[in-house]
Amino acid sequence: MRSLIDILELTTAEIDELIAVAEDIIATPEKYAEACKGKILGTLFFEPSTRTRLSFTSAMMSLGGNVLGFSEATSSSASKGESVADTVRMVSAYSDIIAMRHPKEGAPYVAAKAATVPIINAGDGGHFHPTQTLTDLLTIKRKKGSLHNLTVGLCGDLKFGRTVHSLIAAMSRYTGIKFVLIAPEELKLPGYVKYEFLGDGKLEYVETTDMEAAMPELDILYMTRIQQERFASHDEYLRLKDSYILTLDKLANAKPDLCIMHPLPRVNEISVKVDDDPRACYFEQAKNGRYIRMALILKLLAEKDQPDTVRPGEPTTEITCSNPRCITSTEQELPQMFRCVDEEHNIHRCAYCDQKAYPKKK
Ligand SMILES: [Zn+2]
After folding, report:
1. pLDDT value at 271 more than 80
2. Beta-carbon contacts of residue 242 (< 8 Å; ≥ 6 apart)
């Protein structure tokens, strides 16, 4: 069964193909209006995310299909203590494909193993949200004509922002990409993301705390929210927050064809005065979310009998995942599953949530 948990399960050719289908949907929507007639999308939202759920619902309805599901755990059997696997087995009987959001990291992995229909991860905690990344890639492609040879500024909370980590992972596969990482010291991009995707000369990048100085060279400016609780003190937050709020003044030296993006919802990190600037692309980005989800639903339904590409893990009794946000921390009957990612340094990762572990060598 083909599912999508992590953007990196898709090859670059597959991402390009999804973008091409989405662009065709935008050009000729009538061609697709009955493409999923008689099909049902299950939307299992164990935590509320109205925006993402509406985007999936709109995508399936635009393909002529139907939607059923729940929008928070309290309205589902999960509130009675049912496991993710059982919920998904039950909903597999009522639907042809499932989009699932869950607060625990790795819950969609459990779902993909239990389901008899394709699972789309619509966000699992701070872990993955592949359809947001696909939305971002479609937006960049439409605005810039290509995903190659771009200088991409990422601004705000680069430490905890999962959308930023996934975008770096996906864009690091294209050529001529330079990242400009704009963040306060406290919220710099974590070392492991740099090591995995940017380090060792794999990709060009610079780090700065100064948004305005970085502005002139950017082709893309990807803004994210800085949450107050991430800072050591309220004073520290007040001192820094304005430096990372985008205003028209800060755009004075920007390129005329800069593309300003934001995964939304925005709080105050982009001034509303920027909304009317032709370089503001974030509302269009939200619109693109519907088209790329249509393309993804079509692809997974067409390929549902193909083998699972979800990254494997081996059951083990030697290692226990130490991540308190991992699904194995609440569903203790799940087997611990790990895969070895670096034999030389004996690094393993939890198959559910990707938490690192270094088991003792026998
Ligand atoms: Zn884990």
Report:
1. yes
2. none
Per-chain residues with Cβ under 5 A from ion ligand 1: 321, 323, 326, 350, 352-353, 355
Q: What is the CATH number of domain 132-285?
A: 3.40.50.1370
Are the C-beta atoms of 300 and 4 separated by less than 8 Å?
A: yes
CA of 337 to the centre of ligand 1 (A): 8
Centre a 10 Å sphere on the Cβ of residue 165 and count the other Cβ atoms it contains.
24
The pTM score is: 0.94
> Catalytic amino acids?
51-52, 80, 101, 129
Interval between CA 103 and ligand 1 midpoint (Å)? 13
State the distance from the centre of ligand 1 to the C-alpha of 208, rounded, in angstroms. 32
CA of 348 to the centre of ligand 1 (A): 11
- Each residue of 94-124: b (16+ CB within 10 Å) or e? ebbbbbbbbebbbbbbbbbbbbebbbbbbbb
Ligand 1 centroid distance, CA of 329 (Å)? 8
Per-domain residue ranges of the chain: 7-130+287-302, 132-285, 314-357
CB 339 within 8 A of CB 347: no
Summarize pLDDT for 116-126 with one digit per residue, the tens. 999 999 999 88
Asked if the 7-130+287-302 domain carries CATH number 3.40.50.1370, the reply is yes
